Amino acid sequence: MANKFIFDLDGTLLECDEACNKAWEQAFSRITSLTFDSNIIEMAGNTDFGIIKDYLYINDINIESAPELARKIKAEYVSILPDFLNKESVRTILGTEVFLKSLKESGGLLGISTGNFLRSTYLKLEVAGIKGYFDVVSTVDDYPDRMDITLNAIRKLNEKAGNPLNSVEKSIIFGDTVNDIEVANRCGIPIILVTKKPVLSKGVYISINDYKDLSLLDRLGIQG
């Protein structure tokens, strides 16, 4: 039975794209002369750092030559994000809290593995009311690469459990993008994909629309 559960954040546990896009627009506007448009770069599955890097790049700014500019955009974004996050703009995926509670009551250890900045992560979890369910958090502030972010979450969970740090036994990843599928497959960990779209990618253990059907707990060997 699985007892280590690693969750992506946006699109997997909650949705707040509109609020975040508004914060990005304001951050870029205040720090640069650029008008941010979320439609011209890949947002889904991207990291917060990647959003800054990609948007600067398409505007002919290499982040390697402008690290201070990137730092200022990040600082502005996390500073103003609370102005856009509230109970209306942050929506948890249906059934999320009951499902997380059931995992915790079964003795499971829960972790977040996300491309969000650490401050962004905690803000979203707090507004969604689910911050207290997670034992560890790993973000793009720890590592820039999604694979390393996930491996860091695994190590932290294993440390909590007293397991060998790199053990992937009894682990399950929850995600919503092909990036999450790729990371899970590279780690050798089953992935539960949270999506309402047809699943075309290989390597998906289970695909669900949301968490309201608690028969998923039975499939995981957990009594709901």
Features:
single chain; 224 residues; alpha/beta; Rossmann fold
Précis, in short:
This protein has 224 residues and is of the alpha/beta class. Helix content is 41%, strand content 12%. A 6-stranded parallel beta sheet has the order 5-4-1-6-7-8. A two-stranded antiparallel ribbon has the order 2-3.
Describe the 3D structure.
The chain has 2 domains: 4-15 and 89-219, HAD superfamily/HAD-like (Rossmann fold); 17-83. Helix 7 (178-187) links the parallel strand 6 and strand 7. Helix 6 (146-161) packs across helix 7 (178-187). The two termini are 14 Å apart. It is built from 8 helices and 8 strands, in the order ββαααβαβαβαβαββα. The protein has helices at residues 17-31, 48-58, 67-80, 96-105, 118-128, 146-161, 178-187, 215-219; strands at residues 4-7, 14-15, 91-92, 109-113, 136-138, 171-175, 191-194, 206-208. It has 224 residues and is an alpha/beta fold.
- Name of the CATH homologous superfamily of the largest domain: HAD superfamily/HAD-like
Identify the CATH architecture of the largest domain.
3-Layer(aba) Sandwich
CATH topology of the largest domain: Rossmann fold
Q: How many distinct beta strands? A: 8
Instruction: Write down the overall mean pLDDT.
Output: 95
Structural class of the helices, strands and pairings?
Answer: alpha/beta
Strand content: 5-15%
Report the sheet with the most strands, covering strand number, pairing sense and barrel closure.
6 strands, parallel
Task: Return the CATH class of the largest domain.
Answer: Alpha Beta
Q: Count of helices? A: 8
Helix content: 40-55%
N-to-C SSE series?
A: EEHHHEHEHEHEHEEH
Shape designation: globular
Main β-sheet, spatial strand arrangement: 5-4-1-6-7-8
Count of structural domains? 2
Low-confidence stretches are none
